[in-house]
Amino acid sequence: MKNMKYLLLRRATQFTLLFLYFGANAYGWHILEGTFGASKLFGFIPLADPYTTVQVIASGFILGADVLLGALIITLFYMIVGGRAFCSWVCPINLVTDLANWLRRKLNLDREEVNYRFLKRRARYWIMVLGIIVSAVIGISAFEVLSPITIMQRGIIFGFGAGISVVIAIFLFDLFGVKNGWCGHLCPLGATYSLIGKASIIRVNHNHENCTNCMECKIVCPENHVLHMVNKESILVTDGECTNCGRCIDVCNDNALEFSIKRYIKK
Amino acid sequence: MANSNNKRRKFMATTLQSVGLTALGGLLWSGYSDEVKASPLVLRPPGALPENDFLKACIKCGLCAEACVNRDSNKNKDGTKRVGTLKMAKGGDHRMIGTPFFIPTEVPCYMCDDIPCVPVCPSGALDMPSLLNKKEELDINNAKMGLAVVHKESCIAFWGIQCDACYRACPLQGEAITIEHQKNERTGKHAYLLPIVHSDVCTGCGLCEKACVTEKPAIFVLPTEYSTGRAGNHYVKGWDEKDQLRVKDAKEIRTKDERSEKEATDYLNMGVEY
Questions:
Q1: For a designed S-S bond to A161, which of A250, B26, B90, B182 qualifies (C-beta 3.0 to 4.6 A apart)?
Q2: Which residues of B touch A134 (CB under 8 A)?
Q3: For the segment B239-258, what is each residue's pLDDT rounded down to a tens digit?
Q4: What residues make up the domain containing B110?
Q5: What's the average model confidence in pLDDT over A106-126?
Q6: CATH number at residue B153
Q7: Which residues are CB-neighbours of A212 under 8 A, at least 6 positions away?
C-alpha cells in the first residue's frame, strides 16, 4: 500500500467531489452545486471554468459577474496548486483514461510504439485556440457541445443517456489508439490548465543523488517528457504539463522524487 | 548548409501540416457546432433569453435544474421528492447538450412564486430583470416560456363535447385561457364552450397541455417564436389611437419614374379592352 499513497488520495478526492456534486441534485446539498462549467461552493462562493468562460465571452455574450469572479477564483487556485492538478485530482475523465492506461500496460499494448505523425502533444494548444475561434464564428461555446468532461460529470449528476458513448469512445481511443491520447494530446481544458500551472508553487522535485535509474517513474507518468531531468540533475519538474498526480513519487523506491514548494527550493 | 536547409524545410512542412490540420478540424468543428444549435422546438426555463442568445450564454452548469428539483414544494403528499420540471439535455435528447429544458406532457412548470431556478443562474442566461414586476419583485406571471396553441380539429370542446380541462388547469384561469360560448347549430339547443388562449397573458407553463384529455394533446405549448405570427410594421390600426402614434411622424415618400407621370388609373387600365 505504501506505493499507492497519492493514487488513493487522488481517487478519494475525485470521488468525494463527484459525490458532493451528485448530492447537490439528488439530496439538495449546498456544499458543491452545479458542474465544472460553473459551480457554487457552500451556497455562495462562485466557481467557474476559465476555458468555458473564455469561450462564452468569445461567442459574444456579456457574462454575469458570478461567472467572471468564479473563473478568477479557479485560475488563482490552480496557479498555486499546479494547473493540471485539476486533471489528475478532480476531472472524472481521468478515471477513464487512467483505467485505459493501466490496461495498456497489463495487456502489453505499449510494446509496439507507433509513431503518430499527426498527433503531437502540442495539438491540444491548437485545439484550445481553435475552440475559441469556432466559438466566436458560430456563436456558441464550441468545446462545451462535445466536452467529454462535462458530459461525464453531468451524466453522473443527471443521468447519462447516449452521452455514455462519448466516454466509451475516449476509453477505446486511449486503450487501442494513442497512449495518453485524450488527456496528453487533445484536451483543450488540459492545455488551458497547463498554461495556468506554469507558475505553480507546488511541484515535484527530483533528487539526482538518490535516483537509481530504474525508470519506473517514466513508465507510469502520463506526460513523461516532463521528467526529462530524471537521473540527470536535481531540479524541480517545472513543465506546466505535469499534472501533479504524484504517481511518480508513489512508484519511486529510492526517495528520489517528492512534492516541494517552489519558493523554498529557489533560496 | 545542406543540413540547415533540410531543417528549415522540415520546419516549414510540419508548420504547414499543423496549420492544415487545424483548418480541417476547424471546419468540421464549426459544421458540427452549427448543426447542434438547430434544435428550435425546445422550451426553456422562465426568464430565458431568446434562444440564440440563450445558447451563447448558458454555461451548462445545471444550477437551475438542481434548484427546480430541490424546491420545497416539489414533494408528494407522503413527503417523498418528485421529479423536477427542468431536465438537462443529454446525448440522445436531440437538444443542445447540457442545456435545461422541459417537456410539459411529462412535467410542466408549476410556476413557483419564488422562481427558484432563475436567481441561481450565474451567467445571465436566465434573465432575472425580465421577470420583475412594477414593484421590482420577482413575478412568475411575467414569464414567457412559450405560448399555448389549440388545434381545434382535435379539441373535443370544438366538437361540442363539454370539456374545460385546460381552462381549469391554467394557473392564470380566466386570463390566459378564457371560455367563449357559441351556439351549437348542429343540435340547436346546446352551447360550445371553446377554450381561447390569450398570448399577452399565457406564460407557456404547459399545465394545460399536461391536463388535456385527448390522446395527443389538442392544446400544446410551442416556443413563442414558433406559435406567433407578425403582421408587419406597415399595418397600422386606424381605430387604435395608441397604434396611430407609430405613424405620427411618418412622412410621405414619393417615388418618381415613368409610370408616375400618368394617373394611376391610366396605366392600370393600359391594354385592357372594353
A1: B90
A2: 26, 29-30, 33
A3: 998 988 888 888 888 878 77
A4: 36-143
A5: 75
A6: 3.30.70.20
A7: A253, A254, A256
